[in-house]
Amino acid sequence: MAVAVRMAIAAVVAVAEEEVKMVGFRRRLVRRIYWKLRAEIRRRSEKRQRFSSRYDPFSYALNFDDGEPYF
To answer: Total structural domains in the chain?
Structure first.
């Protein structure tokens, strides 16, 4: 979902730059807003992914089990 949001924001910035032909200050402002939005989207998506786990400890341990008993 974050990729779609970033693409939408990039499209809005591109259209705004083409239609308005902003001068230096405004162009920098639009770019700064774009990068701040992008960073915030990444921060929020990372928070959700940080707490996800694919394996429980027993299943993870099986990845290293070759079937031989250890003494």
So the answer is: 1
